Amino acid sequence: MASTATRRRRSGTSTASRRAASTRPRAASSSDDAIADRHVSSSAPVRRRDVAAALLASSVALSSVMTSPSSSSAATMPDSEPTGLDANGRLRRCPSNFNCVSTSSIGGAPEQYGTAWTAKTATVDDAVAQVAAAVSRACGDQGARRVESVPVENGHYLRFEMDGKLGKDNVEFFIKNEGIGDRNGWEGDAGREKEFLVLYRSLATTVKYVYPFTTPVSDFGEQKKRMERIRGEVGWRRVGCELEECELDL
Length: 250
Known about the structure:
It holds the Pfam family DUF1499. InterPro entries: DUF1499, Thylakoid_lumenal_17.9. The protein is α+β, with helices and mostly antiparallel strands. It has 2 domains: 33-67; 75-238. It has helices spanning 2-23, 30-67, 69-72, 124-139, 222-234, and strands at residues 75-77, 100-102, 117-119, 145-152, 155-163, 168-176, 196-204, 207-209, 237-238. The strands form 2 sheets. Strands 2, 3, 4, 5, 6, 7 and 9 form a 7-stranded antiparallel beta sheet that branches. A two-stranded antiparallel ribbon has the order 1-8. Residues 4-17, 20-46 and 57-77 have low confidence and may be disordered.
């Protein structure tokens, strides 16, 4: 009887031990670790590939916006900037957000200011004829055409239209029937006091933006470069460069 009871107790203890062992967390085997490692190493490249694909898609989309005319015209300002002389009989300044250069843009953005010229001609009419011919030579490939030529009280106003990098451009001249005068006896003025003063403005009539940027698209200084090409054709001096040619401020 005693041996039977002992066997029952041992059997119960063995059964309880097996049940406890079955409920305890099983230590990860080396094969389990290998499977987990393979899972991590295989899922990480997938995530990296997804990120790379998303970045590529974004760059392609931005490239299409920059090269597509319809996308780059997301916000376009039409030909609304007035031309001609202002109420004070002066050539107008450059609007702040336009690709433009003007002899009247004093105190504004440096890249929008242009130095006036002087025309060494016998009459204002001679100066008008010479600058018109220079525009045709320098900007003929841009379809330049004269749209206004008006004598005014103290000189002559001209306006040309031509193709620009972003649309139509206006080029204006105001040739005054007076010279630069005697600037405190400066030697550079000797014999040139009566050369006619030539003021100008070159303006891209359209402002374009590329979404989502709020800075207007640049024409990379084309307005100032155009005016220097015209000046090179007509051969007139810049004011302040009478003794020697100034370094170009392009």
